[in-house]
Write a structure and sequence with these properties.
The protein has about 450 residues and is of the alpha+beta class. About 35% of the residues lie in helices and about 20% in strands. The protein contains 14 helices and 19 strands. The strands form 5 sheets. Strands 3-2-1-4-6-5 form a 6-stranded mixed beta sheet, sandwiched between helices. Strands 7-10-9-8 form a 4-stranded antiparallel beta sheet. Strands 11-14-17-18 form a 4-stranded antiparallel beta sheet, with no helix packed on it. Helix 2 packs across helix 7, helix 5 packs across helix 8 (about 200-215) and helix 9 crosses helix 11. The longest helix is centred in the middle third of the chain and has 29 residues, at about 215-245.
């Protein structure tokens, strides 16, 4: 077989070249399903390490428990790994029920991959060029943008380490040729033939028709993914510049909440606004689809004295004081109160709301901490009694903070409002009330 001599070294060379950036990794873990692509990937690497200096090699198999046929796959993978002298870890995972079984299985699988991939380590998966082409077409049919059509990235962060897909330039036919030449056996997932799954329908019904008319369809679609990945890289660079220009300058930075200055973002074109916000929000939440971006426009265009909210999957975007604020988790919950502060010389832990402390001479008690309910009045030196709502307005306190600001009381007397200049200390400056919110990672000044 002439191709064995000529083509097999080329496949090995392609793999080594794709893995060049990761040659100094602490270890390589191969995601081994037992299927064709991961079997060939592991076999190639096991043989390459005989002639090249490579990181420590191991395999990871995830058993989803979704079908009876899969029960024999861990044993199959173990036989393969034993024959190659490669250690194998098997993870049994629980797949959460939901609308998309494919998505739930993928999430469970990648949670296992994250758990095994430590700092300085790389997880290698066997997705190939045909997989990439199917992903591009699938996402095009769903109306994806540039990021979606870029399909599967060649590399990305995974837990404390990285994920790499070194076979994206290799066709399934090439992998099958290699496997048969080396007498490899692999498992076939019975669900891969079920065309009620969208990906399988594309693979079995659509792609054969496409490649009959355009033999290079898979290669062309994979090339489209590469072009879109490059374009997305440029969009990310532009977003980073726009976000840097919107770095907030606010006296409420001690809140520790992600925020942006509104004006620099609102001054961009509509497309650049969405691009910048997509990039920024991607670190906090699942991004909205095209139809739901109207929520951004409503928030952006609300009148100046309004405090609009855009609710997203994992939290809310608020507009207040000329800034955009991202709130999630405890920031959206009303904290528990009142709390007795029996040892005021020690920090007080506020359930779901960080920590409170008194600096300086501790005021006489009994002291307790509460939160705003409405109608509070505070005695101020040279100003007399003042309504707390008016004082918060004077300080420009964002609405979403007001119900979380700790208030220090002695019996029924409101002594201080945490962190607000002129309201957080006694008239003589003998003590000061300081609050470190849950979300804040900054020290108090």
């Amino acid at each position: 077989m002439i191709w064995t001599v000529l083509d097999m070294p080329n496949l090995s060379t392609q793999l080594l070249q794709a893995l060049t950036p990761w040659r100094n990794a602490n270890s390589w873990h191969v995601a081994l399903s037992g299927g064709l692509d991961s079997t060939v990937l592991l076999h190639l690497l096991a043989h390459l390490r005989q002639t090249h200096s490579l990181p420590a090699l191991s395999a990871v198999h995830v058993h989803h428990g979704l079908q009876a046929a899969a029960d024999s796959w861990p044993a199959h993978c173990q036989v393969l790994c034993d024959s190659l002298a490669v250690p194998l870890q098997v993870f049994q995972v629980q797949v959460r029920p939901g609308a998309s079984l494919e998505r739930a299985a993928r999430e469970a699988r990648y949670q296992a991959f994250e758990a095994v991939t430590q700092a300085g380590e790389v997880l290698l998966t066997g997705q190939h060029r045909d997989d990439q082409a199917e992903t591009v077409l699938f996402r095009l049919l769903r109306g994806a943008g540039v990021s979606g059509v870029a399909a599967m990235p060649r590399e990305r962060a995974l837990g404390q380490g990285h994920l790499c897909r070194p076979l994206l330039d290799v066709s399934r036919a090439e992998l099958e040729t290699y496997a048969r030449a080396h007498g490899l056996s692999w498992v076939e997932d019975p669900s891969n033939t079920q065309t009620d799954f969208s990906r399988n329908y594309l693979r079995h019904e659509v792609f054969p028709t496409l490649t009959k008319r355009w033999p290079q369809a898979a290669a062309s679609l994979a090339r489209t993914a590469a072009h879109c990945a490059e374009a997305q890289g440029l969009l990310d660079e532009l977003a980073q510049q726009d976000i840097a220009a919107a770095t907030p300058h606010t006296e409420f930075s001690w809140l520790g909440l992600p925020s942006l200055a509104l004006a620099p973002i609102a001054g961009l074109s509509a497309a650049r606004q969405r691009n910048a916000l997509r990039h920024w929000l991607a670190g906090f939440t699942q991004l909205p689809d095209t139809d739901h971006w109207a929520g951004w426009e409503t928030l952006r265009d609300a009148r100046e004295d309004a405090q609009p909210i855009w609710t997203l999957a994992e939290g809310q975007l608020h507009r207040a004081g000329g800034h955009l604020w991202w709130l999630s988790g405890d920031s959206l919950r009303q904290p528990v109160a009142p709390l007795a502060w029996e040892q005021a010389d020690l920090p007080l832990s506020l359930p779901g709301n960080g920590q409170l402390r008194l600096l300086g001479e501790i005021p006489a008690g009994p002291l307790h901490v509460s939160y705003r309910q409405g109608g509070e009045v505070m005695q101020l030196a040279q100003r007399g009694h003042r309504d707390l709502k008016r004082l918060l307005n004077e300080h420009g306190v964002p609405g979403f903070v007001r119900g979380r600001l700790p208030l220090l009381y002695r019996s029924e007397q409101l002594l201080a409002v945490a962190n607000l200049q002129g309201l957080a200390c006694d008239p003589c400056g003998r003590w000061q009330l300081q609050w470190l919110p849950t979300s804040s990672d900054q020290g108090l000044s």
